[in-house]
Amino acid sequence: MDARASSDAGVRVHWLSLGELSRLIETFQAAGVTRAIMAGQVKHKQIFSSIRPDWRLAKLLLSLRTRNTNMLLGAVAKVLGDEGIELVSSTAYLEPLLAKAGVMTKRSPNEQELLDIAYGRGVARMIAGHDIGQTVVVAGQACVAVEAMEGTDATIERAGTIMQSLDDEASTLHRSLTVVKVAKPKQDLRFDVPVIGVATIEAMRRANATCLALDAGRTLIFDRAKLLVQADVAGIAILASEDA
Question: Is the pLDDT of residue 129 over 90?
Answer without folding.
Answer: no
